[in-house]
Amino acid sequence: MPILSTVEEVDGWLAEAGWHSGRDVGEEASTEAITSVVERYRVYGVGIEPSAPALAFIREHAFLRAVIDTAPENFAIFTPHLVFKGDAEEIAELAGELGVQLFPVGYDTYDGSTILMDENGRFFFSHHTGAYYLGREKYEAMMSLMSSEMEDAEDYFV
Known about the structure:
It is a single chain. The chain has 158 residues and is α+β, with helices and mostly antiparallel strands. It has one domain (7-156). It is built from five helices and seven strands, in the order αααββαββββαβ. The chain has helices at residues 7-16, 27-43, 52-61, 85-98, 138-147; strands spanning 64-70, 73-78, 102-108, 114-118, 123-127, 130-135, 151-152. It has a seven-stranded antiparallel β-sheet with strand order 1-2-3-4-5-6-7, sandwiched between helices.
């Protein structure tokens, strides 16, 4: 997959996964996905709630499966999810260090890394090698994700 460097390239990449401008999976579908992940986090003792930016992102992008790399097969799945049980505590700790609420809006299938959004619309990436900042909005975040050029999240700690 080529590195994405423009808004148009990001839109094209997402369009290949089924996205289009104005896409809305509907309140019922987005609520079901959100309720499920909130409950899974709660089981592990972590309370999470989606922010308005996370809700908007989920309604527009939920259930998309975008190719990150074809060898090995790796996708970005844009659906709230708890990949590993230990992720709940790690994400809660990251949220505390950032001083913001975080909500999972997707994950990658290769490493099981979680794509997160905060209440300001910023994106973060929880990976087994650490936590990373993807960008201040969707396009910047997707370009960072696809290039693997990510800043350490600790640069954003309060």
